[in-house]
Design a protein that fits this description.
CATH superfamily of the largest domain: Pseudouridine synthase I, catalytic domain, N-terminal subdomain
Largest sheet: 9 strands, mixed
Strand content: 25-35%
CATH architecture of the largest domain: 2-Layer Sandwich
CATH topology of the largest domain: Alpha-Beta Plaits
CATH class of the largest domain: Alpha Beta
Length: 238
């Protein structure tokens, strides 16, 4: 909850409200590197400094999680109206968000985090981050199916971007997308006359699925380092 800057400095025991107002007027207080006006409010995520030295309780490190989402779990933070929501399913003590979605009938890798900045960078469509899936359909596929899926399929008033598609079995294929259109793979298959029976995401960028269904883990330091390298040129959403 946002708190007026003078009240914030008083509540953390730094000084009185009156002294806080004096420090603000002197330009000694900054919020996220900017000099505030008296009455400016501070959010929990803000960094407050006095004389360029941080004050206040230390910020918790962000959490970054990988989950093997089961079929039937819904990617939503609406815990009040959706009993099968992903947040209650994980039960993490921190406030976290899912990065992108997997629809209810799909399973596989999904990332969750408390870091809103990284969510925006990964989700921004123009950043072209890869997501890999294994899909089984209701009837045999052939080279024509692979070719048409690879070249792009008209769905949702657009044509999907070219992508990598590889046949794995009689009715199973691997697909790597850089787009994130709503129910994209299912809609692509429907357009070509196929019904998706199972859909599993096995990779997001450099993170590969290595968990039993329903289990989650924290990302490793090495994985995070590579994610930040891949995101170095990414833009946030506006």
């Amino acid at each position: 909850m946002a708190t007026r800057i003078n009240k914030y400095l008083s509540e953390i025991g730094y000084c009185s409200r009156r002294e806080a107002d004096r420090l603000i007027e002197q330009g000694k207080v900054k919020i996220n590197g900017q000099v505030p006006e008296i009455g400016t409010k501070v959010e929990e995520s803000d960094t407050v400094t006095v004389d360029d030295k941080p004050v206040g309780p230390p910020k918790e490190e962000h959490v970054y999680l990988a989950l093997n989402k089961p079929v039937g779990i819904v990617c939503t933070t609406d815990t009040a109206n959706e009993k099968d929501n992903i947040i209650d399913f994980i039960g993490h003590p921190r406030r976290i968000f899912h990065i992108g979605r997997l629809d209810k009938p799909s399973e596989g890798l999904i990332l969750l985090t408390s870091d809103g900045d990284i969510v925006n960078k990964i989700l921004r469509a123009g950043n072209n981050h890869e997501k890999e899936y294994i899909v089984t359909v209701n009837r045999p596929i052939d080279a024509n199916f692979v070719d048409r899926m690879s070249r792009g399929v008209p769905i949702l008033d657009t044509v999907t971007a070219p992508c990598q598609v590889r046949q794995l079995g009689k009715k199973t294929f691997n697909i790597v997308l850089t787009q994130g259109l709503n129910r994209q793979i299912r809609r692509m298959c429907t357009h070509l006359g196929y019904e998706v029976l199972t859909l599993k995401r096995i990779r997001i960028m450099n993170i590969r699925l290595d968990l039993p269904v329903g289990k989650w883990r924290e990302l490793t330091a090495k994985e995070l380092l590579e994610i930040h390298r891949l995101l170095a040129d990414s833009k946030k959403t506006v």
